[in-house]
Amino acid sequence: MNSRPIPTLSNDWSAGILAATLFLVPAVGVPHDYLLQDTLKSAVAAFGVLAAGLLFFMARCIQPRALAWHWIVLIPVTLCLYALCSSVWGHAYLSAVESLRWLLIGALVFLSLNVFAGPRQSRAFWAIHWGAVAASLWIMVYVWTGLTPFPQGAPPAATFYNRNFAAEYIVTTLPLSFYLAWKHRSVWSVGVSGLLPVPGTIAVLMTGTRSALLALLVYACCAVAWLAWRRVHKLALPDRAGRASLLTTALCVVVLGSIPSSRYSQLPSHNDKLWDHVFARAQSVSSELEPPKSSFNMRVAMWKASVRMLQDKPWTGVGAGAWEVEVPRYQDPDTMLELDYYAHSDILQLLSEYGLVVGGLSLAFLLAACLQRAAPTPPLPQDPQRYALLAALIGLATVSLFGFPLRLAGGGMLFAVLLGMLFSPVAYPVLGSLGKRTYAGGVAVFSLGLLAAVWLTMLAGRAEYHLLRALDYTQQLAKTPKTSTATVHDLVDHIHHEATLGIQANPHYRKLSPMISEVLMAHSQWPEAIWILESVVASRPHVPALLEGLALARAQLGDRQGADAALAKLQALRPAQPAIRNTELVVLANTGRDDTARARAQAWLADGLVDVKLLQSIYALGLKTHDWPLALSALRHRNRLWPEQAADGHFRMGMVYADPAVHNRTAAVEAFRQGLDVLPPAQRENYLQQVPASLRADVEKGT
Predict the structure, then answer these.
(1) In angstroms, rounded to a whole number, what is the distance separating the alpha carbons of residues 207 and 581?
(2) Contact 414, 128 (CB under 8 A)
(3) Where are the domains of the chain?
(4) Is the torsion defined by CA of 582, 587, 589, 593 positive or negative?
């Protein structure tokens, strides 16, 4: 069906509300530690979309007009409905969260089709541009001065908490900034329009985010291909004003990039100049192929787990939002924790959660629609605005291959607006004959949506506030000596109170709650640690580290049944993991089953199924039960398998032989001498001072 122009309304403020939201989402941040940055951005985006939708339909109740429609809206709507259905076999809470996310994205695509059509698109372009500029300026201020009003996990991050999040957002907006510079090349003074893309470009380079740097390279390739295409078709190339604008951009980037800063040396590249920092980050992909703990290899591990997930459930997926719940089952057997809570590839995560039928077809239809819009139409008209939108979507797709911008408020909002503006010229009017009842229904839906958004935002804010307050108290507890009983007791009470309020508001908060329980366990606050761990395990039942902590904590309280139940689940997840044997040994020893524990330990030693941590636990079990041969056997195994720890191992063997219950003076002296022999000369005096005084002279004689 051919598209027809859809008239705008003079009393429709929805475009202004959406434009303000597009500016505010990247520009504002939380200046304190009691609310996460993306929670604020999600609230701003949700309220902006819902308020714009409410005003949109209210205006049409007063003055009815046809609505613009395009089938592209059905893609997020389909994903929303499938997310609701997947709660049957997936994670009910996370499926509901995903359905709301896609519902908002679908609403925003629909609104963008209608309110950002024709001349109004420039308003959205400027809003996106100035929002990105505001975020870019925060990055530049931090790099050059070290000042920032926003808490940051991985600076320079502006208002995004993590520099990767900031870079992925800003780099997506750059094609729009370059379009605005090109559009105003002849209106403003010569070259002045070239200043528009400078802040965004500099900010992306300052972050050193590799996916964003790759997106810049993709943009450059697209620009070269576009120029070559125009040349082949004998179309006009950039004029003098356009070349002057581009030259201004390049000169400003080079000059600003030449300003040194000590802040670059704090980033992973450890350089103090921007260009050295950028080149080091670009080269780090190949250099990080070796260390197993590098960020690139961790991403590869997550991608492999996502592929295994997709192979296991190719048609239905594991359920919307359930990637973080199911991923431990698909990780390498020696992994005890999730490597992250997102797959670091929006494409792979979509396929693994939604399956090939819904997720795969949605991606295929989206790609086909974008390719159709990219195809030039005779007689090859000048349409730079369309290609700027396509370039921005290409950039977003590039960073989505290696990150999760679509899971964040800024990236999801950009995706919806770009998609809506791209297809608004080919949208067509529908529902024009349904009258005011249709629009009144829209008013009712968006009004209810606003009320729900208020309630959900208050709930999310309350959960984060109390959990982050509890985390503050745990940090104080970690610095408090265990001997300060009164202080420890007061802090534990505060932690319990704040954690209770936070978990009641949101029992599915995986990230913060376990951090609280770790410190509580370190201070032997077992009851408080247990109920926190149980709340997390109820929502994330496949994380080995959580089950291990729960089993150990219950064992410390002598809860044999609870410890065995957690241990059984842990063994089912990681049956061949040496760390699980250590957990089993500790559980047996702490629940009154020393004989069983010793028998297991002897069998594992005989079969060689041990690691350093397990050998240390076997040694401790031998000391506890006075099974000296078992303790000595564990130390001999450790000395042989990990010779770098031999000095400590021989010293401990000497202490066992010197124990009055063993009283083997000759063996003790020989063990101490062997430990002394493997030490460097600078450490020997300190070693000798720790040898029992009655044996020290004999040990020194043999050296």
Answers:
(1) 43
(2) yes
(3) 14-287+376-434
(4) negative
